[in-house]
Amino acid sequence: MTAPPDFPPDGADHDGGLRTSHPPQGFVPVRRWVLDSIAELHLLRAGLQREVDARLGGHVDLGDVARDLVLVASELATNGMRHGRAPTIVELQQDETRFLLTVADHDLTSEPRVAGARPPGQGGFGLQIARRLSVDVGWYRTRTVKVVWAEIATRASPDTLTD
């Protein structure tokens, strides 16, 4: 599988831009978190885990979806808080077979960057993690916020999900 043209290929020796686009339509809002500090990440993680577990109906075979979604949300929210301006707003949405995460911050001057190759421990891999665990990832700006989004498939039939 090759990376989309707007992403640096895995192992690239330079950082690259994230594709600018709006997320797919048709999702219904589930829950929203407003984060003012890194210390609040544990509330986001726990809340997301509960919401996703409830919507997946306790199906053990779908546990990886909740784990992936919590990890992607945590990475994107951390990026928003470290590289953006507070508050960071995380929204979870869903449709019949997918979840959509949006993470907004108030820094309109910076753009999300996908990390190139670098030694372990130097950070910068949040967007790579999001890319690997998501169906699609992108970002856009409005007049007031910068939004990074990730679409995550449930790998479940529509009747598996509850609302």
Plain-language structure description:
Keywords: Kinase, Serine/threonine-protein kinase, Transferase. The structure is a single chain. The chain is an alpha+beta fold and 163 residues long. It has helices at residues 41-55, 63-83, 126-133, and strands at residues 16-17, 28-35, 88-94, 98-105, 113-114, 136-141, 146-153. It has a single domain (16-160), classed as Heat Shock Protein 90, CATH 3.30.565.10. The strands form two sheets. Strands 2-3-4-7-6 form a five-stranded antiparallel beta sheet, with helices on one face. Strands 1-5 form a two-stranded antiparallel sheet. The radius of gyration is 15 Å and the shape is globular.
Could you write a compact summary of the structure shown?
By secondary structure, the protein is of the alpha+beta class. It has helices at residues 41-55, 63-83, 126-133; strands at 16-17, 28-35, 88-94, 98-105, 113-114, 136-141, 146-153. Strands 2-3-4-7-6 form a 5-stranded antiparallel sheet, with helices on one face.
